[in-house]
Amino acid sequence: MTNEAPLLEVENLQVDFAIRKGLMQRTVGVVRAVSGVSFSIPRGTSFGLVGESGCGKTTVARAVLQLVEASAGTIRFDGEDIAGMDAPALQKFRSRVQAVFQDPFSSLNPRMSTGRILSEPLRVHRLKPDSEIKAEVARLLDICGLPARFADLYPHEMSGGQRQRVGIARALAMNPELIVCDEAVSALDVSIQAQIINLLEDLQKELGLTYLFIGHDLSVVRHICDQVGVMYLGRMAETAPSDPLFAKPRHPYTRALIDAVPNPDPDYEQGREIAPLEGEVPSPANPPSGCFFHPRCRLATERCRREVPVLDPVEPGHLAACWETGVTVPSG
Amino acid sequence: MTLLRVENLAIDVARDGGTCRLVHDAHFSVDRGETIAIVGESGSGKSLTALAVMDLLGEGLSVSGGRILFDDQDLTALSPRERNALRGSKVAMIFQEPMTSLNPVRSIEHQLTEGMRLKMKLSRKAARARALELLNEVGISDPVRRLKQYPHQLSGGMRQRVMIAIALSCEPDLILADEPTTALDVTIQAQILALTSRLCRDHGVGLVLITHNLGIVARYAQNVAVMYGGRVVERATARQLYRDPQHPYTRGLLASVPRLDLPRDTPLRPIPGAPPDPTVELPGCRFHPRCPKATDICARQVPEFSVTDGHEVACWNAAVDHTEGKGAVA
Lengths: 332, 330
What we know:
The complex is a heterodimer. By secondary structure, chain A is α/β, with parallel strands linked by helices. Chain A is built from twelve helices and twelve strands. Chain A has a single domain (8-20, 27-320), classed as Rossmann fold. Chain A has helices at 57-64, 87-96, 104-107, 114-124, 130-143, 160-173, 190-207, 218-224, 242-247, 252-260, 266-269, 302-306, and strands at residues 8-21, 26-41, 46-50, 72-77, 80-81, 97-100, 178-182, 210-214, 227-232, 235-241, 312-315, 318-320. Chain A starts with 7 loop residues before the first strand and ends in a 12-residue tail after the last strand. By secondary structure, chain B is an alpha/beta fold. Chain B has one domain (2-90, 170-329): Rossmann fold, CATH 3.40.50. In chain B, the strands form two sheets. An eight-stranded mixed sheet of chain B has the order 6-7-8-3-9-10-12-11, with helices on both faces. Chain B starts with a strand and ends with a helix. Mean pLDDT of chain B is 91; it is low at 320-330. At the A-B interface, helix 6, helix 7, helix 8, helix 9 and helix 10 of A face helix 7, helix 8, helix 9, helix 10 and helix 11 of B.
């Protein structure tokens, strides 16, 4: 950790999607996919966003990548507000921020060889003269653990793990500072997933990369990330460094998520009684009043039904949005 | 008494005028009220094995060896008509993706009562009454309204509950669940698995749980069969398998998963390489190209099984050391 400014700062991010209806596609309402989300990622560290489907974690990632427009709030990259960037600055920004997606089969062009997939960004952004491109492609493959002959292969000729390595190599081609990993290891088999996790960690160390890591597998996110944010229905429920967050969660939702994960240990698992979280995530088009989590929460009080809890520090660096956070959250 | 015993099952696929063996040797057994897990990665043959038990293998796939004994009756010797009578009534299956395995143009009532009317010869009224009971049992509120609805009107978790209700509808003795919660969020996964496991125990149903998730195995299964490259390579009780994994592949798997119950900086030790292409012939142990312990014999000869205390392992080098490797995962 250093004292310099964080590489990415997201402040009060809000993303609304219009609900359109009828022949004229008139806007009849909005879904607030992300509401007042703030976090920052120091350079060279990893920040994880977790939560169930529809919690808005991917929308946050897309807003950072400028693939959806923020309705309110600011996103600062290296100290500069990206909303205020002009076209040349934005292009610069786009090369400094890259993404790795979940399904490397649908995010790689099936008609392009690996060599072309990797050389295209180098040409478009004029990062290397034509004479050096071949060597650069080989270097990118090498740091991602693939032999140079893979430049001639097409996506369908590779396994899932190899495709994901190409996906990572493509992101690295731009020599980025921030990589947004959206469920980047979720579709892989267990033994391959571990290879890719280790690769991401090694690359981070060698190249000083910063990761925004979106995932639903808590044990993977905990392993990779220094800091984690737990989202529920578009809001940040809790955020803290990984160790305190998993050892001593202060939001009942975080507790429930952690309890739901079965550990690979039959002695422990078959002896423990868990009460799975009941019900399902409500529709973001029609969220509950007060704390969005209150209908499923065992600690909910009258106040939780009425007032939206504020994301407040419970300890330095550990924030939770819960009115009952002083109450010990019972496990299971 | 053993409810289901699969012995030396082999499955072939027709290919380029010849055949190619996808499953070489699957074997396991399950008792009434017991849960056994089949663990493996893509291409290990775990799903094909389940489909073979159901007699649902697709075009070009066929059982080419071994036996499937259900209640001491060899299913592979039965006529298609006899297999058909068992399917859905005595043996039911829960599939991974309830959106594609439920019929989108039929109401929940139709899909839930179809089996009961066909196999149990229930009247429309009796089937409907039982359907309401089943929906209650799987925790679906407002069952009267739900019966009229269609799959797209239900959430993923609710669709999977309907699948469970359908599986239970004809009071089966055996349920095969193929990655029943892989598409679901972790909290819904916990709900669905707790429900399935409780219902199977209460009704004395044998459950075969097919999964790649080692945590799920640890929580719900009493016995485990680990499959790799179309073979069962290790078979043991869940406790034996996690405490003392014998096959280098099993050890590799356990060392590959990040765990919430270990320190965050515990390094992952992945298995190098990738699973074998099932269509490419590979002599000897199919794990040998990735195995840290491989010796000459591994590349030549398929390993034989050795059994200690009911713990079965197919590895030439398993007996060589019983200590190294487990410290890292225990």
